[in-house]
């Protein structure tokens, strides 16, 4: 296990980048705490795999350093970093049995045969492949092969870090849940530093202690699932986390109030802003009302998704979402929406602004 430090790190696939826009990975300084589980979350092309490949040694960054427990490994090959990496598509030895595939990284290190047997049996149970241990990998399905890849990553208990690059893409939905649970248990049992790349927010939020959200080559927020939901640091985080994502309203902010169209909305704090200003409100904090206060809105449709209802609204020609409890009645004459004060975030040029005098 190791603390992984990214020092002034950035990368461009161009030989002589001239501007920040030409960097696939924008400048980043961060410590991955020894023993924590992280998820790298973002849309395709945002820089997740580039960052993971730099940490693993598959890619040398254009600038900056990578340190494992303070030791500079920026130019060190993958083998010298003592990591295990599982890729999006399965990498297995078809001529070997499942047992031999799982044992391979341990045999390479000269481990005692009895200990190899113990670990292989344990991991086989975790990935539900005990019955296939003596089957050749060649005849197995793609999701079974990926389980072998995951098992090979998990069988070593002495690695500095376990890196996962969208490893559950080819796994069926039920098995995805089982494997995420097992990965979480593995982390709790052995305390490996784990970094898990995904574009699926459910995978990220159920696996990680902290989620690293990336957008356009930049880390825009690192936080717990609760922090990402309640206080998105960037409008992309609000949009990407949650289903539906956060609603955004263009607004004029003046101290402790904001104006959206002709409606004045009180704010929970005093704000000083500049640039393009917006209010971000998650659907869970939007309420319908039939009174005279609030922003004019009309109900387009109501979607019952079992645990709650999603109300699709038209507000000045654009769609806004609200969430109501499963048993909550929706008034037919509701023509306006209001916001719970604690659910309003203020943004300037896409970045969240804290109320004056606080760091929240």
Automatic annotation (TrEMBL):
Protein's UniProt name: Carbohydrate ABC transporter ATP-binding protein, CUT1 family
Organism expressing this protein natively: Loktanella atrilutea
Source organism phylogeny: Bacteria, Pseudomonadati, Pseudomonadota, Alphaproteobacteria, Rhodobacterales
Keyword Transport: yes
InterPro entries: AAA+_ATPase, ABC_transporter-like_ATP-bd, ABC_transpr_FbpC, ABC_transpr_MalK/UgpC-like, Mo/tungstate-bd_C_term_dom, NA-bd_OB-fold, P-loop_NTPase, Transp-assoc_OB_typ2
Keywords, in A-Z order: ATP-binding, Cell membrane, Membrane, Nucleotide-binding, Transport
A single cellular component GO annotation: ATP-binding cassette (ABC) transporter complex, substrate-binding subunit-containing
One family name in Pfam for this protein: ABC_tran
Family: Belongs to the ABC transporter superfamily.
Keyword Membrane assigned: yes
Residues in ABC transporter domain copies: 4-241
SMART domains cross-referenced by the UniProt entry: AAA (SM00382)
């Amino acid at each position: 296990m190791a603390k992984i430090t990214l020092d002034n790190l950035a990368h461009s696939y161009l030989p002589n980048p001239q501007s920040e826009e030409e960097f696939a990975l924008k400048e980043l300084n961060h410590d991955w705490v020894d023993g924590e589980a992280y998820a790298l979350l973002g849309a395709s092309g945002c820089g997740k795999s580039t960052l993971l490949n730099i940490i693993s040694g598959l890619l040398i960054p254009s600038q900056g350093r990578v340190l494992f427990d303070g030791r500079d490994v920026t130019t060190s090959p993958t083998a010298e970093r003592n990591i295990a990496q599982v890729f999006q598509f399965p990498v297995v030895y078809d001529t070997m049995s499942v047992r031999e595939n799982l044992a391979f990284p341990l045999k390479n290190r000269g481990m005692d045969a009895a200990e190899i047997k113990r670990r292989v049996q344990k991991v086989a149970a975790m990935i539900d492949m005990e019955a296939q241990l003596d089957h050749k990998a060649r005849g197995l399905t793609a999701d079974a092969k990926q389980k072998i890849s995951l098992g090979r990553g998990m069988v070593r208990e002495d690695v500095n870090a376990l890196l996962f690059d969208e490893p559950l893409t080819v796994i069926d939905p039920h098995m995805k849940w089982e494997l995420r649970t097992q990965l979480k248990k593995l982390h709790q049992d052995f305390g490996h530093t784990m970094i898990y790349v995904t574009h699926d927010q459910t995978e990220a939020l159920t696996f990680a202690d902290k989620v690293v959200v990336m957008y356009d080559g930049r880390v825009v927020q690192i936080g717990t699932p609760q922090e990402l939901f309640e206080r998105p640091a960037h409008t992309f985080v609000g949009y990407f986390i949650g289903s539906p994502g956060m609603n955004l309203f263009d607004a004029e902010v003046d101290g402790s109030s904001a104006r959206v169209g002709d409606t004045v909305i009180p704010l929970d704090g005093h704000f000083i802003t500049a640039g393009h200003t917006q209010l971000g409100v998650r659907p869970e904090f939007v309420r319908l009302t039939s009174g005279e206060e609030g922003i004019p809105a009309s109900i387009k449709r109501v979607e019952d998704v079992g645990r709650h209802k999603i109300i699709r609204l038209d507000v000045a020609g654009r769609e806004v979402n609200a969430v109501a409890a499963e048993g909550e009645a929706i008034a037919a004459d509701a023509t306006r929406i209001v916001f719970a004060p604690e659910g309003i975030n203020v943004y300037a040029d896409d970045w969240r602004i804290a109320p004056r005098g606080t760091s929240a």
